[in-house]
Amino acid sequence: MPDAPPPPDLSTLPEAEAAPKSRGKPQLVWLVPLVAALIGGWLAVKSVLDQGPIITIVFNNAEGLEAGKTKLKYKDVEIGLVTTVALSQDLKQVVATAELVKDFKPHLVEDTTFWLVKPRISGGSVSGLGTVLSGSFIGVGVGKSAQAQKAFTAQEVPPVIQVDTPGREFILRSSDLGSLEMGSPIFFRRLQVGQVVSYRLDQDGRGVDLRIFVNAPYDQYVTENTRFWNASGLDVKLDAGGIEVNTQSMLSIMLGGVAFETPPESAAGAVAAVDTTFELFADRGQAMRNPEHDVLKMVMFFDESLRGLAPGATVDFRGIALGEVSAIRVELDPVSRRIIMPVEVNLYPQRLRLRSKEKDQPPLSDEARKRFLDNMVANGLRAQMRSGNLLTGQLYIALDFLPDAPKAGIDWSSAPPQLPTTAGSLGELQATLKNVAGKLEKLPLEQIGTDLRQTLQAANRLMTRLDAQVAPEVVATLSEARKAVDTAQGMMAADKPLQYDTREAIRELGRTAKSLRALSDYLERHPEALLWGKQEDKK
Hints:
- By secondary structure, the chain is α+β, with helices and mostly antiparallel strands.
- Helix content is 26%, strand content 28%.
- Among the domains are: 50-155, no CATH class; 167-288, no CATH class; 296-353 and 365-432, no CATH class.
- InterPro entries: Mce/MlaD (IPR003399), PqiA-PqiB_transport (IPR051800).
- This is Paraquat-inducible protein B.
């Protein structure tokens, strides 16, 4: 193979020079995507920064809720929108997700409330009528807690009082709810100053606790000595002074209500703190009654019908209430085998004081009190049952001095001590009727009629003898007298009307005696029949 030619010598060639690069002007078309990217990034950041808080609200059902349409409002200002509505995992509830405005985030705290606003009729109030055209929305109540929260449970009904409403809440304790309900008005001097917020049973189930709210500035009139009473319906009182009707307003008659007042004779006291507990009395009379701290428990035994006497009845001394009946029982005396009726009473000794020029008398000691009452009983003080109201048949216990009462004393050894009693006015009436009926039954009415006929016959015979013996000048007079005796004797004949009428009158007297005895027995069982008459027995 022939040899390859040698490579050329490049060292002899001139050195090449690099040509400089040409630089063109920047193109404007590239700025468009750059600006778009910057704007998009700025909008994305702004969207993230402006996005409001997202919360969840749990409802029992989805009635009135619609994603993208149902709004959230606070004081009728739109603050959010429901974004999704879904069932909970256990399918028992509905979870609504809502997005709120950014400025509302600080108010999403633990006691913030939510509820669905829709047309409602509760008691005598109608709410949510505006949603008939605009649709339902979720109402919001701002809380005062400092604990932030994003998951809430909606309330079934709108709150009666908003959290930011000025005023104070108090608690009332009652034996039952009566006609009160959420939203029932609170009255002060017949002005509506608040509402019943809620109620619940006591833990032991023996009463009801009501939470009420009194608006400012009326809450300053609720003091430590304030009394509350149920002002529902009409308070009708019938006593010796006539008929008295009390009510707060037509609203309280239809929906019920609560009224409060501080007794004039008691000190105003300090303004009551929030959540102070008060007793709810049945009526104004009980509420305004002065509380008695000095109570003397005694028992009285009656041997008559106690129909019409009830716990709470007054123990009266000449028009002054000295106590009230606390309990009534029926017992069998094992010694005498008799039924006795013990009536326990609470006496207030401070209402009956010794005469003194000093206004503020110190309370009597126990020994001085016993001597005082023993002296009164020794002078004839007795307890007696009396009728307090003819319309209702109510009875009360009267303490009065009876000079003819047999000697008696207080049995301080028994617990409680026993105060002597005497038969009441109704018992005296019954005893009188029985006594009259017994005497009428014992009258020999038939014998009286026979004796009257015999007397007239004897008078006729006497006139016959006198007619033959007396002087002629008196013959005419005796003849007239004889005619009168003959007339009377003729009228008393067995076949004459007068004799028949006399027999009928005697029979009527007998039936009257029996009727009086039956009336006495009936009045003992039904004393109210003195006013209402005899009622037919219901079968």
